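Appendix B, Record 12. Input sequence as logged:
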Amino acid sequence: MEPSLKFFGGRLGAAVPLLFFVVWAIAISVAGAPSEHGLILGMVGGLTVGMLLCRSRWADYANAVFAGMANPVATVTIVAWFWAGMFAQVLRVGGLVDGLAWLGSQSNATGGYFVGATFLLAATFGTAVGTGYGTAVAFCTLMFPAGLVLGADPVWLFAAILSGAAFGDNLAPVSDTTVVSATTQETDIPGVVRSRVKYALIAAIPALVIFTLFGGGGSEVDHVRAAELLADSASPEGLVLLLPFALVIVLALTGSHILVSLTWGIVTAVVLQLALGLSSPEAILFIDASTGTVGGALVDGIVGYLGLSILILLIVAGGHLMRSGGALDALIDGLNRFARESVARAEAAIWSLVFSLNAFITINTAAEIAAAPVVSQLGKRFKLHPYRRANMLDAVTSAIGYIFPWGGGVLIGFQTIRTLESQYDFVQAVPPTEVWRFVLHGWFLAAVMLIAALTGFGRTYEAADGSQTRTPPTAPSS
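Logged structural output:
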């Protein structure tokens, strides 16, 4: 198809906005200053440079930018983020993480058993609230100091927390990466989540075993000190919020729209919290006329995604420019030549692309959005089912986002532990350069998806009626 926009440098010129963004993202990550605001500036800069390289009318370029932002994928993702953010914040202020910390303290686990329990509890919390970054902050704050005085090795304990965050980010129906993977591949969230459980469990089970076997070897166990650390925060009352979490999971997996599921979850959580006194009404929503502000968990849940919402609009616009200028077709053509007639080679190419982008872009959702159009187009050529495409996109994204030292999830966990050094004389932050090798669930999940690509494990195709089938098409479509 003839490109609708012309660029200096041909089709490569149409890729400059996104290429500029990727290089910028790597640069600010290496400089130690990754942030959503910085990434937004990088994408704005890329769109500006792209306009200067455009040989067509600049008005046409600008209109293409806005046409890209109007993509329903971005709109659906942003709205789902707002609902998911509100749900996560309501569960947080209600004390769900405190309840899970209490549960861990009651197990009397020490050493490696505590590390294994922390992985399980972090995975549960991450799946409930859908935010891996929030999981890293919460569990580093509560479970990391307690684990140290219960004989856990600090590196293994930090790695277990990051692994639990990756598990939740991948499997939660309300996770931003889940929402992006489903919407960009034009499919439903409940089906996507059901189809990816097997990959998550295959990676999680050996990770749990190894964390338990090798996570000990820390300082001498001090049950009294651990009880003191958890006394002010850990309490069983917050465990009742597992009920709205379970409700959202059941509704989502039985076919309810994600907004319907989350709305019922939010309403149920708010009612339980107010009825049981788990939080004050002001913690959920307040209006301060003296300062002219509105705040609380509901507001925080939305505000937390504003930066990412702007970023996704800009990245989707950059992807639309690639399509309008022919760069996306050129990239797909190159991957098609690599894949030839082999669906295994095509999936290996998808895996490599998603791995590479996530390895160098600190915010994994941004990397996922950038990779999504390529995954969609290449997967459609081989008639891969949208669930399969979404899983290849999301599992690798969730895994890699919590591994490398410059990754957003790793850095936020590290910064959280550093703040604890001034509170506890026995806490010393684990450098990201030491922990990355031990984030076992992340590594195992990425390996599972690579093996699945090469062997065909779990591969499904899209039948003529849109249903899943294991029968491959006679030949990939041109």
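The chain is about 70% helix and 0% strand.
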